[in-house]
């Protein structure tokens, strides 16, 4: 790594952070946070429901504001950074994306499970046609090998993605896993395609993993103020600003402004502390979706087994979203094993 | 690193964690925490005032309990681990150490500033004569080069220390700094002397730095439940248990018991969340003693400069404890610079 590596930081306080406040940021909150972010040197400010465009629903959690009010509020105060929205095909539509662009969104990040890049084709293609900057987002990237991720990333790039992210949705990656995945993508993709990394802190490694990603050639890193995000949160922006400065990596971030916004604006708005507790640590350790937690706890209670054992087993079996039936099956099997041991 | 590296974990919840609760753990708290720790596979349980034996005082903060009651309570419940006490020469005395041994303490960690190992000679020597296990603790180890640390560590070993620790008191080390310091000590000390590492999380790197230390040959790692400790806290034991298990490092820790004790016993006793906030991040970024914080904030207020600039400048000048006069000098200089710029 050259001494003066230059990267850019995308802030996700107003998107991934929405999970941590049950999507309840108000128009005033959004304006306050987006303005502060816009003054501290981030290149992109992502502001969307936690589950992306169209996410505000009974299934994914109703937002406090309509999507229109929320996005317009964010875009109204962002002068320096690019207002950005997340879209998960299946939840958000091309129409949602068009409206978002009308509200002032300039970049779209299209997110799929790490083996399902093909479902991003239409959205990435349409976004490019609309003149939006496009980013592909490979979620749960810890579940598959670097080779598979390369194939999926190439698909996204071929659809028009200008950047592809390795996304550690469950905060389950050790540094080596980050290194091998980022370096594989950097080596395999056309040099015009940037590689990004999105961490979660469930194993206490968000800062170290983000640094490792930069060392392997990632030029786009996701952060959030005070780490506000799902599970144990994301890479805390103000901490990343400090360590990159110490390491001689240029981010353009203003360290003091980031510290002040984290402590004075974001922490007072938190519903719960962002920490590596039993739930978030188990999620990172097992490498499973956060949406499995509640189901696993219910099933574990029913069959009197430890919910952590259920989650660890689900992680081993690489169960993905849509296979929630497996959760009860696993709990039953564990109960039977437990009973056999007691005999 | 061999796949099955074996290390041992010293818990400091009841010593470094005492700073975070202003030394107010009761006899009941100590018994509850020490018992839980004793069941989860740590090799040593350090239980002392935050500033070590003799630390309970107006200057360093009065403990809720007398040293006698506190140590006896801890030792009364510890059956598997070694009850351990910290001692800073100048605060604690040889007599304090003798009394601690009478109360049941089996290991003494003698801590000095990283360039002052010579003041540990008497205490380490006496501890060995008393049949106690002895550990040397080189505080603020980020401030000097690996070569100097090697010289200081050799002194401690020559006095009889069976283990020497690199201590990142300010949480200021990047992973490379940990690697070069630990590998220097491992290479230079007699193979009968173990090398340990004590992290703080001020830069969000406690887990990564502790793993790096193990990779370089450290066999003793300090942790605390939920990271309870000064500043941004120590390496969280339960998280370290999870990452070492994922990495194939044998610690003997019981992950679920550690998670449960962190969430159910320690977090409810916290006075404040253990987090990387403006204060603790500045401390790690600047690389200064936590005891400077209050002085720096007072001086900064008086001269209307940013206290963080004062701390950063103190870090650059490598100011150490006892040189607190420098804090006002630095604030005055920064004020003058500021005024000159405004003209």
UniProtKB/TrEMBL annotation, chains A, B:
<feature type="binding site">
    <location>
        <begin position="15"/>
        <end position="16"/>
    </location>
    <ligand>
        <name>substrate</name>
    </ligand>
</feature>
<feature type="binding site">
    <location>
        <position position="200"/>
    </location>
    <ligand>
        <name>Mn(2+)</name>
    </ligand>
</feature>
<dbReference type="InterPro" id="IPR035685">
    <property type="entry name" value="DRE_TIM_HOA"/>
</dbReference>
<keyword id="KW-0479">Metal-binding</keyword>
<feature type="binding site">
    <location>
        <position position="289"/>
    </location>
    <ligand>
        <name>substrate</name>
    </ligand>
</feature>
<comment type="similarity">
    <text>Belongs to the 4-hydroxy-2-oxovalerate aldolase family.</text>
</comment>
<dbReference type="InterPro" id="IPR013785">
    <property type="entry name" value="Aldolase_TIM"/>
</dbReference>
<feature type="binding site">
    <location>
        <position position="16"/>
    </location>
    <ligand>
        <name>Mn(2+)</name>
    </ligand>
</feature>
<feature type="active site" description="Proton acceptor">
    <location>
        <position position="19"/>
    </location>
</feature>
<dbReference type="Pfam" id="PF00682">
    <property type="entry name" value="HMGL-like"/>
</dbReference>
<feature type="domain" description="Pyruvate carboxyltransferase">
    <location>
        <begin position="7"/>
        <end position="259"/>
    </location>
</feature>
<feature type="binding site">
    <location>
        <position position="198"/>
    </location>
    <ligand>
        <name>Mn(2+)</name>
    </ligand>
</feature>
<dbReference type="Pfam" id="PF07836">
    <property type="entry name" value="DmpG_comm"/>
</dbReference>
<dbReference type="InterPro" id="IPR000891">
    <property type="entry name" value="PYR_CT"/>
</dbReference>
<dbReference type="GO" id="GO:0008701">
    <property type="term" value="F:4-hydroxy-2-oxovalerate aldolase activity"/>
</dbReference>
<keyword id="KW-0464">Manganese</keyword>
<dbReference type="GO" id="GO:0003852">
    <property type="term" value="F:2-isopropylmalate synthase activity"/>
</dbReference>
<dbReference type="GO" id="GO:0009098">
    <property type="term" value="P:L-leucine biosynthetic process"/>
</dbReference>
<dbReference type="InterPro" id="IPR017629">
    <property type="entry name" value="4OH_2_O-val_aldolase"/>
</dbReference>
<feature type="binding site">
    <location>
        <position position="169"/>
    </location>
    <ligand>
        <name>substrate</name>
    </ligand>
</feature>
<dbReference type="InterPro" id="IPR012425">
    <property type="entry name" value="DmpG_comm"/>
</dbReference>
<feature type="site" description="Transition state stabilizer">
    <location>
        <position position="15"/>
    </location>
</feature>
<dbReference type="GO" id="GO:0030145">
    <property type="term" value="F:manganese ion binding"/>
</dbReference>
<feature type="binding site">
    <location>
        <position position="198"/>
    </location>
    <ligand>
        <name>substrate</name>
    </ligand>
</feature>
<dbReference type="InterPro" id="IPR050073">
    <property type="entry name" value="2-IPM_HCS-like"/>
</dbReference>
<keyword id="KW-0058">Aromatic hydrocarbons catabolism</keyword>
<protein>
    <recommendedName>
        <fullName>4-hydroxy-2-oxovalerate aldolase</fullName>
        <ecNumber>4.1.3.39</ecNumber>
    </recommendedName>
</protein>
<keyword id="KW-0456">Lyase</keyword>
